[in-house]
């Protein structure tokens, strides 16, 4: 790349940064957009502090309703209640972390835990979410302990009952000797168990998910039978709302760059500096190339920086960095071409800026830069195919969360590159080199 | 160094430059003197490659036309309409245009410092151009033309709005450039400038040279006679003469003189005599 080209581009980027309004439109506004709309559209899916679960009560007994309420009241969970089918679907689509089914017979088994009947709970969770699965398992164990202890009137009450039963047993002559012998072994054993349970319950009450998980595997005894069911999450939805708002917000930065540089072409002409560039020992191609390079460079770095911010602070983790890189290059190419095209829309700074923004806003409106595509009616979605903004957003989303394969990415990339070449050609051909006077 | 042959340019029906032919030599300051709309800027623009002549040819150093980028490397232009990046500082403007002309590294830095000194703007070099006064911008506009040390300089009214002190400093520096062998094309309406700086002056009106020669020869040929004006007790006496000193002595001998003034012919008179109009309306 020639030194002159770099000098031209460097000058333009410096001018862009010097212009407070331009820098705002290009850098600050898009970031505000990304964050603001990310918060507005917020669909919480990934909170580890409060897990969204669905409780399906198939037992419909007093005990199962009580247990469901207990989970509802728990600080660790936000609970919704639906039928099993809806619950499975919600987990599959990643709307909630897990579903918990209190199976038929849950309540009855709860009443007979001391007789070693285990209430059965089915938990459906995406196997990829190992941490959450372990946490849920532990928490369910903890709350089932709590529930059982509550039913029996707490540890002290239980111990008193056991001791009373033991004493009665020793003086009772009605009981057959074999049974007395068996209970003589069992009741002290039971008392020791109650103490164990209390300790375990205290542990988990103070502990976070990981140690609660240990409770579930605690050797001695499991009050409930937790059956883990793998529900594979469909990997098509965005991970969170920022995954939607960032590509959209970044588009605004790109449009800002495009408008700034398109206008700056005309400012060069009206301020006479274009004549100076033409007098310099460089060709016209270099002059246009310098402008294109500046626009390209700022577009790519702007979008890369915003994605980095999204990645570091807002959970916008691209599925493929390589795809994203190509997408940003393709998008920048398209908008460099459009920038060149905008520069021939008028003779003055005012007319180019006005007409240019009108064109860009039209593209944004149609292409999902204002209202996300997914909220558009079907006819508008198909109309949006004519907007480069739509393809730019698709190229970014494909790499960020749609998890497109390389062959799926080819279409948006090809469209963007072609848009760039076509618009640039028209703009460069139509550009008027003659200054005033 | 610079060769124009039968160069013409028209805007629609208006003939801005009409069959202009001249040659400028190394180490020469060639002046274009003419009223508004005479075609000076149009000619400069064609030499700089900004306008394509409708007819005729222009050859820069070595014969290449100004449409060749490499030929323009040897040309520096200070356009009449200021052309600077207002949001950049003086140094940044000069550095940028220096780079475009192929300078870099230490040479570039030295040339930028030299150009700033040339127009006495070193103390304002770190300020953005938009904070400059009109005269300062005009001076920086000239500095951009010379930063890459081109052998051919096209200066289109480079001193408009510049105060006398800075203007004098600029004249000295331009003469210094000339002594280093640069060719300067200099347009102006100011006769004093043309008289002081130019080796040869082309008097241009309506796109045509009315006369082209050294200042002395122009005055001798077209200036007419000197005018001696004497105030006497009995009134004013005006005498035209090619030997004003002799006339003064004669008047003195006649006696009764209150005051004496000698108006030597100048370029203004040359222009008046050539066109029947004053140079400035
Ligand atoms: N772009 C243009 N379109 C039409 N006519 C033009 C254009 N530029 C210059 N002219 C005309 O060409 C003629 C020569 O203009 P030019 O600018 O060369 O004059 P000049 O000698 O530089 O005058 P001044 O002393 O005012 O700078 C004028 O009549 C002017 O109106
Ligand atoms: Mg002019």
Uncertain segments of chain B are none
DSSP strand tally of chain B: 12
CATH top level of the largest domain in chain B is Alpha Beta
CATH architecture of the largest domain in chain B: 3-Layer(aba) Sandwich
Spatial order of the strands forming the largest sheet of chain B: 5-6-7-3-8-9
CATH topology assignment of the largest domain in chain B: Rossmann fold
The rough form of chain B would be described as globular
How many H/I helices of chain A?
17
Ends distance of chain A = 34 Å
Fraction of residues in helix of chain A? 55-70%
Q: Can you give the helix content of chain B as a percent range?
A: 25-40%
Question: Which hetero ligands occur in this complex?
Answer: adenosine-5'-triphosphate, magnesium ion
| Structural domain count of chain B | 2
Mean pLDDT of chain B: 91
Rounded to an integer, what's the Rg of chain A over CA atoms?
33 Å
Beta content of chain B comes to 25-35%
| Unreliable stretches of chain A | 44-48, 205-220
Task: Name the CATH superfamily classification of the largest domain in chain B.
Answer: P-loop containing nucleotide triphosphate hydrolases
Task: Summarize, please.
The complex is a heterodimer of chains A (437) and B (281). Chain A is of the alpha/beta class.
